[in-house]
Amino acid sequence: MTDVRLNHIVQKVNDMPVLPSRVNRIIELTEDPDSTIDDLEKEILMDQSLTSRILKLANSAYYGYPRKINTVSQATILLGFQTIKSIVLASTVNKIMTHELKGYALGENDLWTQSQASAIISRNIAKEVKFSNPETAYIGGLLRDIGKTILNYYVEREYNAIVNKVEYGNVSFSEAEEEILGFNHAQVGEKIAEKWNFPKDLVEAIGLHHTPEKSTINPTLVSIVHIADAITMMMGIGIGADGLTYNFSPFALETLNFNAQDLEDFISKSHDLIIDGDSFDLI
Ligand SMILES: [Fe+2]
Questions:
Q1: Mean pLDDT of the chain
Q2: Which of 130, 146, 163, 182 is the most exposed, fewest CB within 10 Å of its CB?
Q3: Ligand 1 centroid to 30 CA: how many Å?
């Protein structure tokens, strides 16, 4: 590991595009208790592809609404501000997360498919444990591995060293990344989330999704994203190179009050959620 490489990685994070101003504006509106459905509709209507995604989701079987939703304002009432925020963010990051990542043995779209699964599972765990904002959990699950898009370049070059470390050093893939590259993909993701001015609990959930026991801000959110990530990997969705070294953290299980039976039930429930195409790949 050299300082030059550490600086390069930080530089690459700095070079990441900022979120488009419309996306920031929509996120602000969804967070502002004084904003109205009209305010949000006006902003969404300026983006045609976003408008069609929102209408498609509102009309999907996932929401099971009996009548056709024709307008963004009807969709906003049905879906709620927080879900609108998730859709807007997901449709923005999907451009970054669909590329092939050779360092992680992830083909084109694999990271994206996996991230959507992890997002949906996170949201469902959040609802199950009555977490106050399930959409924050959704976004945490969606973005937990975004650091891989930057670290990929370095992992690819040091692939043999990392895999050797995992195999003979009895460490996880992310620990091997940290030892050999100076950063693991969760820490790089945390830097991206900071750059995008995400709330502190979300930044933490991305940064600690492999080490939830280090949480100091919101252990419940971190634990939700960690468990959802491990379930996604266990289910073998776009598993990639690091997929076989995942374990459920005892800290996270305890924080969510999950026993072995709960976990088993949740894994089978997650499977049903993911094979339901209507709740999936809508972005
Ligand atoms: Fe990860």
A1: 88
A2: 130
A3: 28
